[in-house]
Design a protein that fits this description.
Shape: rod-shaped
Number of strands: 11
Strand content: 5-15%
Distance between the termini: 56 Å
Structural class: alpha/beta
Helix content: 40-55%
Length: 452
């Protein structure tokens, strides 16, 4: 019987230290540390941006345009890395820039040719680099070659739809040659198939075409049509100096067909450079991934560029993002994304943003909880000792009989309150010692009062 009683007590003893533990005290003690850890995790998600989104949107160009075809190539490359790229049609460069500058439009990146940003707010836009040259192809119908744009005065010209880079550049070049809207020259906001067919049918005299507003098949059809000429710009050097966003481009003799020698001589062209423009909130890992895709798409040699010439960290109207600058000079910024597949690196980063604050803050903080809890419980006992000492000092100061009676009554009240206290069993000894001390002080000064 005694043995069973002993075993029962032994089984209860390990739990005794937890009996009477105040949940409120534990919450007050550990709560701030848990709250701080949660705040750090939230801040990490908001500002550290540990994991990139798996879907982004690019504003490209009209259906079938070079801009849209290029965006679709990006789409396939990003899909290999688990990122979905939504390709949003647009009118062209100017339309792309307006969408990027408008926070209400859900786009992340877009192709924008240099020279179309005048009067627009570019504060929240950055460049991921120059991607390719965009030669201006001016096709016209004439028996003899034209030498300057001024010769088009009074003609019917297709200058591309509003919102396209073609339209914006055509107006600038025509104005430099004394041709403006409202004059003798008829300016039509058409491009692509419509402009091409109108030129073939003799309804217009010339058409400005670029990659953001025309398809490659349209360009090829006009190049091979008798009676349609591609404008040679002898003043290309002057244009590139007058307008810094334009570059001189040479289409070499025989570039389209060596056997038929098409074109029969070098043709001087002009054109802007196309940049991949992004909002400043673009995740660094996606910036790296996009530049890698750009290298795969634009890094090869073409008639207008040498191998490896693009993409390039060239700045025009848009500042090069710090992430892009780092990538061009040193490669990937994030170590995990440089050694792991994109999807795995994203998962690890997402895990770290929760795991690191727990390891750095919560675990060490929770180790302090027992000491803080002990201090909190003991402080409740020490508070009564403070009152007890204060009353004892007041009694020793020789108070009047009424004041002494009031002080002794306060001792009784303290004893009553202490007897009601709930303490964990680990602190029972401290509680009983406090009760003994209260009783000792009360008895001593009551005897003194009776002796008086």
């Amino acid at each position: 019987m005694a043995k069973n009683r002993f075993q029962e007590l032994a089984s209860v003893r390990p739990m005794a230290r937890f009996i009477g533990v105040s949940v409120r005290d534990l919450l007050i003690t550990a709560g701030p540390m848990v709250l701080i850890t949660l705040i750090v995790i939230v801040i990490a998600y908001l500002f550290v941006r540990p994991a990139p989104p798996d879907t982004i949107t690019i504003t490209s160009g009209p259906a079938g345009s070079n801009f849209q075809l290029t965006a679709q190539k990006y789409q396939k490359i990003l899909a290999r890395n688990g990122v979905k790229l939504k390709v949003l049609p647009s009118e062209g460069s100017l339309d792309n820039l307006r969408k990027l500058a408008n926070p209400k439009v859900q786009v992340d990146i877009g192709f924008v040719q240099s020279g179309v940003s005048e009067g627009m707010n570019l504060d929240r836009l950055v460049s991921l680099g120059s991607m390719f040259h965009l030669p201006l192809a001016l096709f016209y119908r004439a028996e003899a070659p034209a030498r300057t744009l001024a010769e088009l005065n009074g003609k019917r010209l297709a200058i591309g739809p509003e919102g396209s880079g073609t339209h914006a550049l055509a107006l600038v070049l025509l104005k430099a040659n004394g041709i403006q809207p409202g004059g003798a020259t008829q300016l039509l906001n058409i491009s692509g198939d419509e402009a091409s067919q109108s030129l073939l049918d003799g309804k217009i005299d010339a058409a400005f075409l670029m990659g953001d507003s025309a398809t490659p098949p349209v360009m090829r059809k006009l190049l091979w049509t008798p009676g349609i000429r591609l404008m040679d710009f002898p003043q290309a050097d002057a244009y590139s100096r007058r307008f810094p966003y334009l570059v001189k481009l040479d289409l070499p003799m025989g570039g389209f067909d060596f056997g038929k020698n098409v074109p029969p001589q070098d043709i001087h062209l002009i054109g802007p450079t196309v940049e991949l423009v992004a909002r400043h909130t673009l995740h660094p890992a996606l910036s790296d991934l996009l530049i890698e895709a750009a290298r795969e798409v634009h890094g090869k040699a073409t008639l207008m560029q040498h191998a490896g010439e693009f993409p390039a960290p060239l700045e025009h109207e848009f500042p090069l993002s710090s992430d892009a600058r780092h990538f061009y000079s040193s490669g990937r910024k994030d170590f995990l994304y440089s050694v792991l597949p994109f999807e795995w690196a994203s998962l690890v980063n997402r895990t770290l943003v929760v795991f690191v604050p727990i390891v750095v803050l919560l675990i060490p903080g929770l180790k302090l909880v027992p000491a803080l809890y002990n201090w909190r419980v003991r402080s409740r006992i020490y508070r009564w000792y403070g009152l007890l000492i204060a009353i004892e000092r007041a009694i020793l100061a020789n108070p009047s009989p009424d004041e002494r009676a009031e002080l002794l009554k306060r001792l009784d009240d303290i004893e009553l309150e202490v007897n009601k206290m709930k303490m964990p069993l680990a602190f029972a000894e401290n509680l009983y010692v406090l009760r003994d001390h209260i009783k000792f002080v009360s008895d001593r000064y009551r005897r003194d009062a009776e002796g008086c």
